[in-house]
TrEMBL record:
Protein name, as recorded: PA2169 family four-helix-bundle protein
Superkingdom per UniProt: Bacteria
Domain DUF2383 positions: 7-116
Species of the source: Bizionia argentinensis JUB59
InterPro entries cross-referenced by the UniProt entry: CHP02284, DUF2383, Ferritin-like, Ferritin-like_SF, UCP029477
Pfam families per UniProt: DUF2383 (PF09537)
Amino acid sequence: MKFTEEISNKLNELLVKNYDAEKGYINAMNNVEQSDLKMFFKRCATERSQFAKELRTEILQYGEIPEDSGSFKGTMHRNWMSLKATFSSNNEDAILEEAIRGEKESLEEYKDFLKDRTLPPSIDALLIKHKNAIQGAINMEKVQEELIS
């Protein structure tokens, strides 16, 4: 199966999203007080860092050049999370809501990419693994949200 520039571009988009998500989770971790919530955000940040490494490896394996940083949109989202946390009466709930929103967007991007039935099997398997983990994080975030509400 030929690795196309289109596939490389899409993988780079996911790579940037994962950089953004990792930084967002670190930001969230630094803006909450509950230790279990801090640990949850830390685990999510670590997981997203691992996703980024896996995507970088896949891109490099096919002779393409991976992106090396997050996006302006991601920076703006993190700034919004910090601002919202500052002015919200329930910081942790607001931060969790934003994290869920960001994860849902990420999940949709993975689902859209997976609709491409011409992906090499290694990429398809990697994206399915990431998609399932993101869905699991969303489910856990919703549970956490219920616990702090």
